[in-house]
Amino acid sequence: MSLRLLTLLTCSVFAFHCFASESEDEEDQAWQSILGFISNDTSSLNGRITIMDLEIDEQRAQQLAQALESNRSLTSLGLQNTSLEDEAFNILLPSLITRPNLTQLNLQDNSLSDESALNIFRLLIKAKSLVSLNLQHNALTDRGIGFIPEEGITGDPGTIMGAFVSGATLELIDLTGNNLSPEAFEAVADFIKHRKSLLLQAPRSRTSVDNIITPELYALLTREKVPTTREWFQDPTISKFEGERKALGNKEFIKRVRNVCLKLLALPAEVQNLLTLEGMLGLALNAPSVTQYDPVFKRTILNEEATCLLAEVLYNNNVLQDLYLQGVGLHGLTNFPLLSAALLSLSALETLELLNNNLGDAGALLISQILPGNRTLRYLGLANNKITARGMDALGDALQQNNVLETLNLTSNPMSDRGGIKLADVLRKNKSLKTILLAKTHMGNEGAIALAGVLGVHSALVELSLFGNHIQHEGLTALLNAREELEHTVDIDLHQNPLDSQDLLLFHTNQAAVHAIQSITLEEQPRQEVHAEVIRRAADEEEAELASSSDPLPAGDEEAEMEMPRVIPRSRPTQEPRNLLYRMWGWVSSASASVPPQETSMPNPALFKDPEIAKYYRILTTPQSRERLERIHGLYEALPLSIKGVLSFDTCMYLAFNDHRMKQVNLSYLELGQQGLNILWNALSSNHTLTTLKLVGLGIDALQAAQLASHVAMNGTLVELNISHNPISDRGLMPLVTALRVQNNLQALNLTGITGVTAQGLNYLIGAIKLIDLKYLILDQIPFTTESVFALKAVLEQSPPLKMLSLAQTGLKDTDGTFLAQALTTNKNLTILNLSNNKLSGHCLKTLAKSLIDHPNLRELHLEGNLISPRGLEALITLLETGRSRLCRITYSSGLLSEARERKLNELLERNHF
């Protein structure tokens, strides 16, 4: 064959077009000439190169990459109809990424598959000048572009559409002629149109990623030659964190910076505007200048990846005091569980504003884990979050164990009278709440009467808003009578209730008068301050005084009684058992105390001679050990004896303190109840050493599953999770799957017999398998529909890392088995497949046998309990006789084969053991 080289100079474009001819040597000579043009004649090429109809294999890709390195003026590159495959494109990628002025890339009529999607994603987030990308007539599928039937276009990192979102300058992407379904192609068009309009409406701010990442930082992120450490730390973006760098050390500092930058760059542009690089770095580095974080951007929603990034940088932050996350799309069953564990770890947080989200009762349950024993949070804003009375029950139980929170905003939550009654019970024990905002909470007379009944008990309350509710005359009367008996001032707002206008005016006029009288009275009674000083005397003086006289006033001495301060003397403290906390710090846990104890140092080492204290020596000398111990101890002491009998204090301690002895925890079939599960979630909230967690048959429902999801998302060591036989339902499964997508470490998941799961929840799980590096998945006893089987087929065809798949007792029929058999023809990684106790017949088995020819890894096939005939098993024997199967174990119901055929089957299986 001969080959002619045609050079076209039209429009300053050099196009190298190769025609069929006679000699391979001439083809190589032509190829070398092309490389010479690209390498040496940079000025005449004018930056625009097109190579057509010439095969570029891996070797030529390497040569082309070297030639491109010499050409710094390249602005347009076309590689049309060059048989370019994934491996060759991977070789070209580094040289394309480093082109500073590349605006057009044409890869049409090649063989790029979904495996190149991740490389294209990397190219587009790093090549900051690319405007046009042509991918017509390649082998991309729905998976590669990021289309899921249930969700539509996801824009996930690593997909073509994820690349389109991340490409700041990209304006055109052509996917015509790929293996896309009609639904995916239509979704792509809509997605691109919508995305570009978003970019136009929401231009990046001055603190966006594009403007903050400098050349030095960019070089580090793209793994090019990194400037010297000294030069890099002179970068203005980095130099402002000089104090944190010195505290962390260069290695840890660079690690955190890289993690934040790379994850932020993968997010959509409008989310980057919300979570700026500067803010994320400040949180991740515990910068003392970032004590308040308020990422307000109108109509911007945090997706799952963004929420996970925010959780990572917040985790164990010890300087942040005020956090505002209003209206960012937090949902109690999807992305908020990813954030809740991080909120629990904030040790200095004073203000938490979550206004205008969709937390619901599930979110309220997660927030309730933050409040018990918390010593810093003063303001909690939960307005307009769809929290009902059920969520208020969880918050109420937590508030009874909190004596720091001062302001609680529950405005515009449909908690009704039941929520008000619960809050009234809280105020009998909680002594710190000063402002409670309950406007537009659907509360009526019952709730108002309950709150009126505790106004005299809760002396700290100064403001109670009941604006816009359904309170009528009975509720107004109860509040009026209660307020008249108070010795302190309480502002009560009853506007916009169905009350007589004259009664309402009289109520608020009387309230203003009471305030004025009380203020005058306080000015005329300076003696109160003197008496108040008496109360602050030492405790031993008080006890001596109490011991000397149990009745200090003579009977009937009214004048002397008027001189006494209006403060009830302290009662003699009761003798508490000398438990672990008492022996260490000399006091009992303050979870229920009205005044938090003063700070003390760690216990004297001599105390560790006590056996009960000594076994906790290592974990009690870790930072913040005292606070964790108090929280766990307080919750544990409140448990019923029946739960303490099955959940030991040692287990909770070791989990909470990341003790190396607790790498595997099995609490299956224990009757923990709600209280036991609550302490388990608290113990898990900061754990990062646990590898195996088995929680079979504990009655974990949707809300509890959402709590579990928050801890799974933040745990980077968990590799095996078994939550079989729990009623978690779709509402619990979805946040758990979301957590697994961002955890990136779990390898084994057992969901046998979970109830309440529909086809929608099951398909959500199956769709996520390709995004989770699971190796072992057990879905036994979960009813499968044809739709679910088809979704599973699509995933298996893409050869995810899954090695073991168990679908026993899922109701699979022959048609379902046929779909799975088709998937196995392209699957490369599955080693164990369990289809036992279904409705598969011999006909399905024949199809399955054909699909297993040349399967490289399948070793075990479990078929017992099906409707299989001897002929079906004979098909497997025939398969093994070909020597093209690696099966070494097959289980089936007894009596299907004669002794001779069974012996033959065993011989063939035994041969494959080696």
Provide structural commentary.
- With 914 residues, this protein is α/β, with parallel strands linked by helices.
- The protein contains 42 helices and 26 strands.
- The strands form 4 sheets. The protein has a 9-stranded parallel sheet, with no helix packed on it. The chain has an 8-stranded parallel sheet with strand order 10-11-12-13-14-15-16-17, with no helix packed on it.
- Helix 34 links the parallel strand 18 (664-666) and strand 19.
- Mean pLDDT is 78; it is low at 1-14, 197-213, 223-227, 517-577 and 587-601.
The gist of it:
With 914 residues, the protein is of the alpha/beta class.
Topology (SSEs and partners):
Layout lengths: L4 E4 L5 E5 L5 H17 L1 H4 L2 E5 L5 H12 L6 E5 L5 H12 L6 E3 L10 H10 L5 E3 L7 H4 L1 E2 L3 E2 L6 H7 L5 E3 L7 H20 L7 H4 L2 H7 L7 H4 L3 H4 L2 H7 L1 H16 L3 H6 L2 H8 L7 E2 L10 H11 L7 E3 L11 H10 L5 E3 L6 H8 L11 E3 L7 H11 L7 E3 L6 H12 L7 E3 L7 H8 L10 E3 L7 H12 L6 E3 L7 H23 L3 H9 L3 H10 L9 H6 L16 H6 L25 H4 L2 H4 L4 H13 L3 H4 L4 H8 L7 E3 L6 H12 L7 E3 L7 H13 L5 E3 L6 H15 L4 E3 L8 H11 L6 E3 L7 H11 L7 E3 L7 H11 L7 E3 L7 H10 L8 E3 L7 H12 L7 E3 L7 H13 L3
Parallel strand pairs: 2-3, 3-4, 4-5, 5-6, 6-9, 10-11, 11-12, 12-13, 13-14, 14-15, 15-16, 16-17, 18-19, 19-20, 20-21, 21-22, 22-23, 23-24, 24-25, 25-26
Antiparallel strand pairs: 1-2, 7-8
